[in-house]
Amino acid sequence: MLEEIRLRGLGVIDDAVLDLAPGLTVVTGETGAGKTMIVQGLGLLTGGRADYGLIRPGFDRAFVEGRLAVSPDSLTAARVRDAGGEIDDGVLIIGRTLIADGRSRVQIGGRAAPASLLAELAEDLVAVHGQSEAQRLLKTSTQRAALDRFAGEAVAKPLARYGERYARLGAVRARLADITERSRERAAEAESLRSRLADIERVEPAAGEDAALDTELRRLEHAEALVRAAQTAHAALVADPASGDGSPGAVDLVSAARRVVAGEADLDPALAELGNRIREAAVLLADVAADLASYAAGVDADPARLAAAQERRADLAALTRAHGTDVDGVLAWAEQAGRRLLELDGGADSAEALTAERDALLDELADLAGQVSAARSRAAHEFGERVAGELAGLAMPRARVVAVVSQRDDPNGLPMFGRMVAFGPGGVDDVELRLVPHPGAPARPVHKGASGGELSRVMLAIEVVLAADDAGVTMVFDEVDAGVGGRAAVEIGRRLARLARTHQVICITHLPQVAAFADRHLVVSKASDGSVTRSGVTALDDAGRVRELSRMLAGQEDSTLARGHAEELLAAAAADKARP
Predict the structure, then answer these.
(1) Can you give the pTM of this predicted structure?
(2) Is-annotated flag, keyword DNA damage (predicted)?
């Protein structure tokens, strides 16, 4: 609900504030007093097109600000928070600034935001209906939504299920398109993986094989040197009698030293300790000598094995070069590539399953869309009759509104009604409201068959019919009473008052019959310099309402006859509003 609107530098308005209230608020004033600027300001607050010609001469910018009561738990509050804005104690402040150099700024909850977000938020909070602001009624999607609201659960339940399946169809189609578009890439990728995996399978590397093979190759390539070194070392440790060299080996010399020391070890414990150490050295040297002999005998100098190992190393080197890693890295890649190949090879199965799901979804959507379409068609007649009933009391007694439910052919659509029809997130139906202004006249789209004032009254009639299902929205009507008077004007006031039981309604009017039904009456007046200032917007008390209605009736606030008529209008309106 709008609590307050502030306008500055907009048209004739210098700086004015409108304090609003629940129920029906009417705004009156003499021609040119700035009432239209209020509607223009509300249009800006609801994300309307920025018209920089509205900036008041002498001002470099125009500013509009609105204070709205918003539940902290509402979807609107969540959208504001997502945009970085804040709601202070249940109050949301939105603002729009037009700068003379052609720029526009939007503030939502204290944060800069795009005008599109302002329009999105305002769509659920404020509806402006005027001769130039009835855009919602001009959209076929809005007309379909109006019929759906009127139809209630009969449409809502199958439509909700339809929406879920439609969203799933979109996901399935996107996945199928991705598989189809990428099939060639996937085939090329799979072929590359198979080729590289075949190279690995041909070589059959083992984990750590490259390091082990390098060690073996060093032994094979230097076998003679390794044997010679081992034999020479062995000869130095142990003398070989067959060599004809009588020189003792290290083992013999150490053993001799051990014997000498052992002969005198009992004379001194220190010498005995040294003898033990010599004995340990002798044992160690004997073990090393034996290991050297064994090593020399075990060195493989087989040329065939050397050639095979060199060939194996070449195969492994080619493989690791191709992958830029060692054998362990190649094996890890092969494991990942195998899993990826399974995914790629399973693509055909996925496409087949998705195609089957898509076809099943299309059948299900056709059934649900049929249920929705049938419910809309059943509701269309009653909806038109109810709207026509409201128009009868709005100076359009012979007018009828027809809700036409139709479908468009589309070779790629759903099979329904014996043909293929287009479908979308809202089903298969186009809903168009058509106006028959009088019997015998052709039914034309409502925005083409109605004048500006008639269009506003059609919107009012629709809103009254739908009011019970749309409580809480602020509705603004400008010139809804254009071209009417007398009893028709009273009926307009009565219907606005009825609508105000469940909505906040703001009406710009020049008819006293409408103003008499107000719960709050604001009058806009100009200052001596032709501008509207803060003091130029006044909330009227009972006496002030009598004077204003007298002015509207006779152009004279002090006319006894006019005052009597004004008091009569107010009393009749009050009695009417008191009825349940």
Answers:
(1) 0.58
(2) yes
What's the distance, CA 394 to chain centroid?
A: 43
Strand stretches in 298-373, DSSP E:
none
Nearest CA-CA partner of 517 in 547, 537, 490? 490
- Using CA atoms, how far apart are residues 27 and 243, in angstroms rounded to an integer? 132
Cα–Cα distances in Å, from 327 out to 308, 316, 324, 552? 18, 7, 10, 97
Q: What is the DSSP letter of 88?
A: B
pLDDT digits (tens, 9 = 90+) for 306-329: 777 777 777 777 788 888 888 888
Q: pLDDT at position 133, please?
A: 47
Asked if 221 contacts 228 with a C-beta cutoff of 8 angstroms, the reply is no
Angle between helices 250-264 and 223-237 (to 10 degrees): 30
Helix (H, G, I), strand (E, B) or coil at 488: helix
Q: What does the alpha-carbon distance between residue 300 and residue 309 come to, in Å, rounded to a whole number?
A: 12
Query: Is residue 55 in some structural domain?
Result: no
User: What is the end-to-end Cα distance of the chain in Å, rounded?
Assistant: 23
Beta-strand runs (E) in 152-265: none
Average pLDDT, the chain: 84
Is 281 domain-assigned?
yes
The tokens describing 158, both together, are: 């199958």
Range of the domain at 282: 209-325
CB atoms within 10 A of CB 344: 19
At 521 the pLDDT is 94
Beta bridge pairs of residue 420? 415
Nearest CA to 427 out of 222, 247, 168, 161 is that of 161
**Shortest CA distance to 494 belongs to which of 390, 419, 398, 420?**
390
Long-range Cβ pairs for the range 453-457 (8 Å, 24+): 453/131, 453/479, 453/480, 453/481, 453/482, 453/483, 453/484, 454/396, 454/399, 455/131, 455/134, 455/137, 456/129, 456/130, 456/131, 456/134, 456/480, 456/482, 457/391, 457/394, 457/395, 457/396, 457/492
Number of domains in the chain: 1
Q: Which two tokens mark 76? A: 């609107």
> Residue 359 has what pLDDT?
93
pLDDT of residue 468: 54
What does DSSP assign to residue 284?
A: H
Among left, alpha and beta (phi > 0; psi -120 to 50; other), residue 502 is alpha
Find out whether 226 and 218 touch, Cβ atoms under 8 Å. Answer: no
Contact in structure between 56 and 9 (CB atoms under 8 Å) = yes
| 331: CB partners within 8 A, 6+ apart | 200, 205, 207
Instruction: Compute the chain's Rg from CA coordinates.
Output: 48
Are the beta carbons of 11 and 34 closer than 8 angstroms? yes
Closest by alpha carbon to 44, among 473, 459, 53, 82? 53
Question: Which H or E element spans position 67?
Answer: strand 61-69
SS3 content of the chain, % helix, strand, coil (to 5): 60, 15, 25
Find, among 415, 423, 407, the residue nearest to 363 by Cα: 415
Q: Which of 309, 133, 324, 129 is nearest to 213 (CA)?
A: 309
Q: Which among 458, 429, 430 is positioned nearest to 137, based on CA atoms?
A: 458
Residues of the chain where predicted confidence (pLDDT) is lower than 70? 32-33, 129-138, 240-246, 345-349, 449, 451-453, 456, 467-472, 479, 481-484, 530, 532-535
The pair of structure tokens assigned to 72 is 């902290």
Residue 267 lies in a domain: yes
